[in-house]
Specification:
By secondary structure, the protein is of the alpha/beta class. The chain has 10 helices and 14 strands. It has a 9-stranded antiparallel sheet. A 5-stranded parallel sheet has the order 2-3-1-4-5, sandwiched between helices. Helix 1 packs across helix 7. The radius of gyration is 22 Å and the shape is globular.
């Protein structure tokens, strides 16, 4: 039976929403979900000349435009998911939802907009199955607050906090509304978002501490006798970089259909690094490939994803190794008990060996 879930990822300015969307899409795809991502409407309109104030529209006029485009996209994506895509498990992820528009107009104006489109606040709010709000870095992680990654955003930290507060109020009352704050570091914030998403979907959650094992090359047909698997093809290319930023692009997909991602890792302090990731177009991906670090060959691998004994495993098979592979699992803490699959022959635990990092393997070309 087909299952289609509608999820909103929202939050204040500079909250980690772009990275969160990317991580959710990749992680769910690895587990056999067909993922559709609906881009943020205002961010589509503003850079292309349809913007509030100045020589363009009033904020109220702009919100009418945003509403109409949002409703049209939701109708289109729902039709595609329910009628055209043969997958059984489909997730539609919305980069912001209708209730986020309430933050930019007053109460009476918002009611007029809803009335115009034949809705009320309850129907507007509950048309989505789950809503996850990421708190702005301006509230609790001020040193990380920046608008450099979104040309459509101009808010000061004070304005960002006010928008964040209004956004939470707008969605309060939804039956599955979760708030992910800045009480931890950024990486853990993303882990908490992923855990909440998986909890909503009823899936074993992705955990945060990675263990990695060098294994004998498995028989994939044998594995499929024990567990259901999903295979993802990955090409990871490292880019030229400077200023303490490590950059890479990744092509990821299956059956000839691919998505593309840019990842940047930046050192904040000697002990802290921030990893930012966003989905990019195929045109952008090809352009980034012209900036590849030719001293580091690309990583080409097949990732076999499966659940065993309630644990989520990823098995990477590299193009340069015929007899060995890497098995990975993420844990809640370093002492968590692992039940390794009985159909896997482990050679050794390489969790703390830097040689087995992808960038090292790209250079060494052997396991």
């Amino acid at each position: 039976m087909k299952q289609v879930k509608n999820i909103v990822i929202t939050g204040g300015p500079c909250s980690g929403k772009t990275t969160g969307l990317s991580k959710i899409e990749q992680s769910l795809s690895s587990r056999g979900y067909y993922v559709l991502v609906v881009p943020e409407t205002a961010t589509e309109l503003i850079p292309n000349g349809i913007r509030p104030f100045g020589n363009s529209l009033s904020m109220l006029q702009f919100q009418y435009v945003v509403f109409e485009k949002q409703l049209g996209k939701k109708k289109m994506y729902r039709y595609v998911a329910e009628n055209l895509i043969p997958a059984e498990k489909i997730v539609i992820i919305y980069d912001r939802g209708i209730m986020d528009n309430k933050s930019y107009v007053n109460e009476e104006e918002f009611k007029k907009i809803l009335f115009h489109f034949g809705m009320d606040e309850v129907s507007a709010r509950d048309r989505y199955d789950a809503v996850f709000h990421l708190v702005t870095a301006a509230n609790g992680a001020e040193s990380f607050y920046t608008l450099a990654n979104n040309a459509a955003r101009t808010e000061t930290p004070e304005e960002a906090r006010a928008l964040d507060k209004r956004g939470i109020a707008n969605w309060t009352g939804h039956q599955h509304f979760r708030i992910i704050d800045n009480s931890t570091g950024f990486d853990e914030k993303m882990n908490r978002l992923m855990a909440d998403v998986y909890s909503f979907l009823g899936e074993p959650e992705p955990l945060e501490i990675e263990r990695k094992f060098l294994i004998e090359m498995p028989n994939l047909e044998e594995i499929s006798k024990y567990v259901s698997t999903n295979t993802v093809d990955i090409v990871q290319t490292y880019l030229k970089s400077d200023g303490g930023v490590e950059r890479r692009v990744r092509q990821r997909g299956q059956n000839g259909n691919f998505s593309y991602y840019l990842t940047e890792k930046r050192e904040v302090t000697p002990l802290t690094r921030v990893e930012l990731e966003k989905k990019i177009s195929v045109k952008e991906y090809v352009n980034y490939l012209t900036k590849a670090n030719i001293s580091i060959p690309p990583i080409i691998k097949k990732r076999i994803c499966f659940v065993y004994a309630g644990q989520y495993f990823e098995l990477d098979i590299f193009d340069f190794s015929k007899d060995k592979a890497i098995l990975e699992i993420e844990l809640t803490n370093e002492n968590s008990r692992i039940e390794l699959p009985r159909f896997i022959n482990v050679i050794k635990d390489v969790s703390e060996d830097p040689f087995y990092k992808n960038i090292s393997l790209a250079r060494a070309r052997h396991l």
